[in-house]
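Q: Hi! First time doing this. I have a protein sequence and I read that you can turn it into a structure. Is that right? Here it is:
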Amino acid sequence: MKLPRFHLAFPVSDLKKAREFYTRILGCTLGRETKKWIDFNLFGHQIVAHFSPKDCAKPNTNLVDGDHVSSRHFGVILPWNDWEKLCEKIKGFGLQFIIEPKIRFENLKGEQGTFFIKDPSGNILEFKSFKNDNMIFEK
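A: Yes, that's right. Below is the predicted 3D structure, encoded as structure tokens:
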């Protein structure tokens, strides 16, 4: 089944830094852009960085499995090998993880790899992968 793509708009404080981060580190390709926003292709999904420094407030966190997880974050669920490659790529750039790569629910329903990073404007991104895609919504 072909999944629909999502669209997400989010604030940034510096479009030049956003362009550099999303293209160079995450490998996004560019779409349309103006002096106020940039479209990115994030693994087939359209995300749009809008220049809006006042909206780049630090989000609150919730405690999840011992980690302080940002209550406002976004990301992509990747195939396992792609997730591992992205982990290594981010390590290679020397980017600091907000939450280090880890396996949650190991050998249980919903086993997943996850990590969190921050873009230059403070937006939090989570990248995860499930050992079994059928477990994404399993209770």
